[in-house]
Amino acid sequence: MNKLLKAILYRPFRRVVKSILFVSLPYLLAITVILAVFGALPEKADPGREKVREYVSDQKFAVESKYGQEKEFAVPWGLVYAVEEYANSWSAEPDMERVKRVYEMLRPVFCYEEYEETFVTTYSYIDKDGQEHTDTETRKLKVKLLTQAATYEGVHLFDYVEVTESEGDVLHTYMKPVGRRFAGDYSRLDRVLASELCSWSYARVKVAGGELFWPVPSSRTVSSPFGMRIHPLTGRYGRHTGIDIAAAEGSDVVAAADGVVRAVEDDDIYGKMIIIDHGEGFFTMYAHNSFVEIKPGDIVGRGMKIAEVGNTGMSSGPHLHFELRKDGVFLDPLSGAKAPEGVSVAIFDNVDRKIVLETADAFMKGQAGLEWLMGRDVK
What we know:
Elements: H1 2-38, H2 42-58, H3 77-87, H4 96-106, E1 109-126, E2 132-151, E3 154-167, E4 170-184, H5 187-196, E5 203-207, E6 210-211, E7 222-224, E8 227-230, E9 237-240, E10 243-246, E11 252-254, E12 259-267, E13 271-279, E14 282-289, E15 291-292, E16 299-300, E17 305-308, E18 319-326, E19 329-331, E20 338-339, E21 343-347, H6 351-364
Antiparallel strand pairs: 1-2, 1-4, 2-3, 3-4, 5-21, 6-20, 7-10, 8-9, 10-18, 11-17, 12-13, 12-16, 13-14, 14-18, 15-17, 18-19
Helix pairs in contact: 2-3, 3-4, 3-6, 4-5
């Protein structure tokens, strides 16, 4: 009886165990491979993590603007550490030369505009004949206004309005911050990943350089130049980061130089937009398109059609908003700029960047190794 009972109980139990192992084995193997490749070794990584955290935390940059907005843009130590660990095969001892190099490539770049505030003081006095007089005295003060902060995740653009306020007998005219715009752009981080994680065997393409090709062959009308301006829709004073080329809707938009397409997005401000990487930190951006013919990762040639002029996003009429950037800093496309000659540009998608950013976020939250992949907090 006991043997029969054991057989009855054992067979179903064995079938259940085999089923569980059959279903779970692929996941167990996957986790094993991940841990083997990336090395979930929080105990070994902790000393190096502290060393990187201390180094990044010790880095300071000058605060030159009147309102001190620079303080918001410190580079996260977790991002520097994540890049270092992936590049260094999760070694217990970080390569501090790489850490310094990565930090320098990711640190923010600031652009300023000088402005003269005025203080007009009104005062009264009585002369020797007993007559009352009113006079004014004007004093000026030069200040720096932060107009853009180029970071590893994009560019923050600061908007201002000119206001005059009464402070007792003094009328004070100054620029008041009224908001900011943000243009997402991971090109600087992508460049770091391409250069530091070369062991991941990114494919590369060599592109030609030279004078930029005019991006709208059918039009030479620049309706709004590069530089500070009053925005036609918001009325705010801020940097116009490119040039606007007025053209009929549907007109061809072509690549200004050889390169690799980094982004094709539908943005609230820029509408249907394209970012092309031309190597060595040079990028062009094409915004407000009605139609886009390319996708991220495509290799494009100088003068090749990539889109059609439109009126998408925050736009006052059909035109192409065209930008030129160098390491996240906006340049005037009409300044005779040239794309780099014969450089090698990495071709890769955004999966690698996403992994690095998620790892960096986990480090900043106090999680260790790859425990964040398994959804467990460090106790």
